[in-house]
Specification:
With 92 residues, the protein is mainly beta. Helix content is 0%, strand content 48%.
Length: 92
């Protein structure tokens, strides 16, 4: 993939509040700001901004993260996907 543009993808259930991240994952911290929270009963959706990127995390409903908070969410790096930006085909 040298020299090709790629798109990084991760599902909301693989983005975690650091306080409630599973112990057995290969996590990577990503600095982000909480833009919107949506309490959904047994989960909370966090709409997050990191630089020019936006993404959604589906986190434990006990999360104390609120709109305007700056945090480091945890990406489960065993669960991410990479797509070729021009063909949209999965690379990983």
């Amino acid at each position: 993939m040298d020299g090709k543009d790629v798109v990084f993808g991760i599902r909301p259930e693989n983005i975690h509040d650091p306080e409630f991240a599973p112990q057995n994952i290969h996590g990577e911290k990503v600095s982000s700001k909480v833009d919107v929270t949506e309490l959904m009963g047994n989960e909370t959706l966090l709409y997050l901004v990191s630089g020019k990127n936006t993404f959604v995390g589906r986190v434990d409903p006990r999360s104390k993260l609120r709109v305007g908070d700056t945090t480091q969410v945890i990406f489960d790096m065993d669960k991410f996907h990479i797509f070729d930006a021009s063909t949209e085909e999965a690379v990983r």
